[in-house]
Automatic annotation (TrEMBL):
Alphabetic keyword roster: ATP-binding, Nucleotide-binding, Transport
The protein's name in its UniProt record: ABC transporter ATP-binding protein
GO cellular component: plasma membrane
UniProt organism field: Parafrankia colletiae
Coiled-coil intervals, chain numbering: none
Length: 268
């Protein structure tokens, strides 16, 4: 599948932008099983691209390949034009790739606030070990700034009142919002969301959607895997339909909903 270099709401009409994500001819085989077969796509900065398809279509496997958790059998992954196919997940994370998972993966014994702060720890606190040991003014100032930023992210996600609660004590809907807050606390370039609305209430789903749309206005590329077709159609600029590891169709939400093969295989 090839995706034309068209402008999105996050770009300038008539101007070709370097894709935030470009996947070229990705195939993943496990022995005799082909989980992903010759998939190519691009996602531009500020674009929301939704993936739909039945269970076993290859959506999560493709996410694992993009985020570096699983190497492809063949094909390449490029981030901002750079080939990262053989880069470790940590390297991709520092390049701006963030991800949530089908099952929320939080530091259950840490507070909600500390889960979000953990996303920024890799940048260091400033001043090195001595600054940490003696709590220098610069170190205290940076820590205060990070906590203020974490609080603003939690507030946007409707979690400010829960910031001191252990993350492991939260119901699934709130846990997913914490995972989102952690993913966006350190500004991403590419955000991969795997079944994010599973277990969310209508209000929580609305909050999640508001954050997706806010992120796109800042130039973040968002790739969304979701079984809630209505949510995908409402959030996405473009929708890709996977079936048995291959691309069945792609297009705007209206085009996908009217596509005969998609209706027969998936939408009904």
């Amino acid at each position: 599948m090839g995706v034309a270099a068209t402008s999105t709401d996050g770009g300038v009409a008539g101007v070709t932008t370097k894709p935030a994500l470009e996947v070229r001819h990705i195939t993943k085989r496990y022995g005799g099983l082909t989980a992903v077969s010759d998939v190519s796509l691009r996602v531009d900065p500020g674009e929301v691209c939704g993936f739909i398809g039945p269970n076993g279509a290859g959506k999560t496997t493709l996410f694992d390949i993009i985020s570096g958790l699983t190497p492809p059998t063949s094909g390449t992954v490029r981030l901002d034009g750079v080939d990262v196919t053989r880069q470790l997940p940590e390297r991709r994370t520092r390049s701006g790739v963030r991800r949530t998972f089908q099952r929320a993966q939080l530091y259950s014994r840490l507070s909600v606030e500390d889960n979000v702060l953990a996303a920024m720890e890799w940048r260091g606190g400033g001043g090195g070990l001595l600054a940490d040991l003696f709590a220098t003014p610069g170190r205290r100032r940076r820590e205060a700034e990070r906590r203020e930023h974490a609080l603003s992210v939690l507030t946007a996600c409707g979690l400010a009142d829960l910031r001191h609660k252990p993350a492991g004590s939260l119901p699934i809907g709130q846990a997913r919002l914490v995972e989102l807050a952690r993913a966006i606390a350190d500004q991403p370039r590419l955000l991969l969301l795997d079944e994010p609305t599973s277990g969310l209430s209508a209000h929580e789903t609305e909050l999640f959607g508001e954050q997706i749309q806010r992120l796109r206005t800042t130039g973040v590329a968002v790739v969304l895997v979701e079984h809630d077709v209505g949510f995908v159609m409402g959030q996405s600029d473009r929708v890709v339909v996977l079936n048995l590891g291959s691309v069945l169709a792609e297009g705007t939400p209206d085009e996908i909903q009217a596509h005969p093969a998609v209706r027969a295989a998936y939408l009904g």
